Amino acid sequence: MAYRLFEGKEHASIYQQYRFTPPSGLKDIIIQYLDKKKGPPHALAVDLGCGTGQHTRLLAPHFKEIVGIDVSECQLEEARSVPGYTNVTYRTGTAEELPFEDGTVDLLTAASAAHWFDRSRFLLEANRVLKPRGCMALLGFADTNIRLNYKDCGDKLNRIYQEVKELLQPYTSNPVAASESKLQDLYDAIPFPDKERIESYQNKSMISVSRLVGFISSWSMYNSYKRKDPQGAEDLLANIQKRFLDEMGATSPDTEIEREWEYFCVLASKPL
Q1: Distance CA 209, CA 249 (A)
Q2: Tell me: the pLDDT tens digits for 43-101?
Q3: Could you tell me which of 126, 43, 51 has the C-alpha nearest to residue 87?
Q4: Which end of the chain is more exposed for a tag (fewer CB within 10 A), N or C?
Q5: Cα distances (angstroms) measured from residue 177 to each of 118, 137, 150, 173
Q6: What strands, in cross-sheet order, belong to the sheet with 130-149?
Q7: Most distant CA pair in the chain, distance
Q8: How far is it, in rounded angstroms, from Cα 41 to Cα 39?
Q9: DSSP class of 100
Q10: Number of Cβ within a 10 Å radius of residue 173
């Protein structure tokens, strides 16, 4: 992986606490695609940039074995701390140099991670390790289309959220911008003729104000800002939480709001 921004123990702990598991409905679409293109049995899945393992664990029931790969040993320590998944293992590594034999992987997937990969090197490795008709599933979320709803103040909450993103924009890297484009350049570069895109998978869930602020603290651009101005970053989070609660007329950061979020997914199947 060409970028190494999430390797510290503190950031790994924040990821485990505040990053969201992708929706199970989108996971079902991925498994259905794999069933259609390759067919069972599904022996091995590899989750690239797995972080603290949320997506890895979601896929676990559908495979004999699933391996989570990440550059950060701290992230993997958090992932390994979650019990109950006997068919899951985690390894330190990168998407560009995979520790698997040629033609052995049924599914190669990445959740909110593929925008960090070296595109050409990753695609060469994907072509090497996938079985014939094996599949890629690269998913993420479009943070530009998030909607927050609470009573009659949803528009005000959305403005606060967008203001935070604008404030942190100078600390945004090019890969984050690639994610916001729904991996269009990566999709175009995939050499397999059999490929498709899910442009918009809508997801609604309830989230506490404190968890939403915690999610913001997991952003790469927030952590770039924090390295430059630690106290300013802490003050920013406190201010965001206060503004949310003030607009809501609430006092407890455990107060829940509705979050509407748009996911996307790039799917591709290696030819015979």
Answers
A1: 12
A2: 999 999 999 899 999 999 999 999 999 998 988 998 999 999 999 999 999 999 999 99
A3: 43
A4: C
A5: 15, 19, 29, 7
A6: 88-92, 65-70, 44-48, 105-111, 130-149, 256-269, 194-208
A7: 59
A8: 6
A9: S
A10: 15
Query: What pLDDT, in 10s, does the model give residues 135-181?
Result: 999 999 887 778 999 999 999 999 999 999 999 989 886 655 555 67
| 3-state SS class at 137 | strand
pLDDT of 204 above 80 = yes
Mean pLDDT of 108-117: 93
Residues 6+ apart with CB under 8 A from 23: 201, 203, 263
**C-alpha gyration radius of the chain:** 19
Per-residue confidence (pLDDT) for residue 75, from 0 to 100: 86
Can you tell me which residue has the tokens 């591709």? 268
Backbone angles phi, psi at 134, to 5 degrees: -65, 160
Buried b (16+ CB within 10 A) or exposed e, 117-151: bebeebbebbbebbbebbbbbbbbbbbeebbbbbe
Residue from 110, 105, 13 nearest 56 by CA: 110
| CA pair distance 272, 7, nearest whole angstrom | 38
Are residues 164 and 235 in contact, defined by beta-carbon separation less than 8 angstroms? no
